[in-house]
Amino acid sequence: MLRTTLLFVATAVAEIVGCYLPYLWLRKGAGAWVLLPAALALAAFVWLLSLHPQVAPGRVYAAYGGIYVAVALAWLWLIDSVRPSPWDLAGVAVILIGAGIIVFAPRQF
Question: What 3-state class would DSSP assign to 28?
Fold first, then answer.
């Protein structure tokens, strides 16, 4: 479970970096050189997605979505220096509970 969670976090960071760097180029005046690490980050994102369990990919991606939102708010705080509001934190809690329900619900096959 810890391995899967860390894989989700690494996947989310790669996706965010891959999208954040072009944002810096387009909106914040960063040099075009940032597009190279952005492309590498997105390639890493795709590769990391391929490492996730393939038992039920839709459920895996739904759970990943919850982790992505949590990592995005951490990014907001740590990189953009914008402290998440209590509403942001409540929203992340709800999303993570939902992801947990998706992942851990008993299933009959």
Answer: coil
Output 72-80 pairs: Cβ under 8 A, ≥24 positions apart.
72/12, 72/16, 75/13, 75/16, 75/20, 79/20
Q: Burial letters for 34-53: b for 16+ Cβ neighbours within 10 Å, e otherwise? A: beeebeebbebbeebbeebe
pTM of the model: 0.86
Instruction: State both tokens at 51.
Output: 């490492």
Sequence-separated (6 or more) residues with CB below 8 Å from residue 25: 31, 32, 34, 35, 38
| Helix, strand, or coil (residue 57) | helix
Q: How far apart are the first and last CA of the chain?
A: 21
Split at pLDDT 50, 70, 90, the class of 7 is: very high
Model confidence pLDDT, tens digit, residues 43-98: 999 999 889 876 777 888 888 899 999 999 999 999 999 999 999 999 999 999 99
Within 1-109, where are the H helices?
Answer: 2-27, 35-50, 57-78, 86-104
